[in-house]
Write a structure and sequence with these properties.
Radius of gyration: 23 Å
Strand content: 25-35%
CATH architecture of one domain: 2-Layer Sandwich
Number of helices: 9
Order of helices and strands: EEEEEEEHHHHEHHEEEEEEHEHEEEEH
Oligomer: single chain
Structural class: alpha+beta
Helix content: 25-40%
CATH class of one domain: Alpha Beta
Low-confidence stretches: 79-101
Distance between the termini: 38 Å
Number of strands: 19
CATH superfamily of one domain: Chloramphenicol acetyltransferase-like domain
CATH topology of one domain: Chloramphenicol Acetyltransferase
Amino acid sequence: MPLLGADMTAGRLVAWHKQPGDVVQRGDIIAEVDTDKGAIDVEVFTAGVLEQILVQPGEKVPVGTPLAIIRETAEAPPAPPAAPAAPAPAPTGPGAAEVRARVSPAARKAAAALGVDLATVRGAGPDGTIRRADVERAAAAPGAAAPPGEPDRQARMRQAISAAVTRSKREIPHYYLSTTIDLHRATAWLAEQNATRPVGDRLLAGVLFVKAVALALRHAPELNARWEGDQVVPSEAIHVGVAISLRDGGLVAPALHHADRQTLDELMATFRDLVNRARAGALRSSELSDGTITVTSLGDQGVETTFAVIYPPQVAIVGFGKVVERPWSVDGRVESRPVVTATLSADHRVSDGHRGALFLAAVDALLQEPSRL
């Protein structure tokens, strides 16, 4: 059972997408796991043959529990055939035949694991087919029944977030810095770029912020790290987590992998996809476990400054507020300029205010040359 965030202690196996004897490659989706933050697709991090399944759908096990055995050698003897899975109980009552005909196998397994009555789920797939995401939404809806003996998903998510931030404030000696950045050049460049693009391809200011943070980390690599045990472990890769609010409450911070290497167009497309999948309950395990720093913004809520809490085991988080017009001194005269407040919350065990200030200065400098992002 993978660790999908510092606040996770256990997960429920929802479904297997591979069976004993199947060949798997690195990056394949092998299973679905239900966590406090939704159903997560579990990836394979090695290539080989799935030899044995150890945890069955519906079982809840602690983090670190082996879920399956994968034999890495191609010469492995074939695994014995798996026992046939018991068929999911068919729904009964009015409309049961229609429900049986329009439920995907993954959705049926998810419903069994999450205690969702399929007769109450509205399918959004082709011809009204009920998909796993539809079951997830039904399970997360206010008033939805939770598995016996467990609080509903919203309550579990709030408990998980509470555990994570409590641990963060208890264990991490935070320090905080802020700076105000002139966005005159950035907003002008953005407007020029978007004027020639279809609506669906336009760039958001938030993508410029993410790219500037990713590139600035090259000048302050100690902020791109994880605290493991009693020491800091620097990360060569820059995977920027982005805080995404969920429709039914709570939030997740999946990672934009190699954010420093992606173009702005690639980042925008990846970010849109990440938001859609996060809200549909279709994130991958690596997206929740690989983040090396997080960017958060409450600008769309009208907040001008946000000092965020570091998400363990990361050692820093960057916040951006609302872009606002403010008086700004330019060459001895006062002009109205669009500005944004950028903040840094960082772990004092790993860096200090001097290094943090250099990092924010690098973010500012990068945003003054948006065409180079």
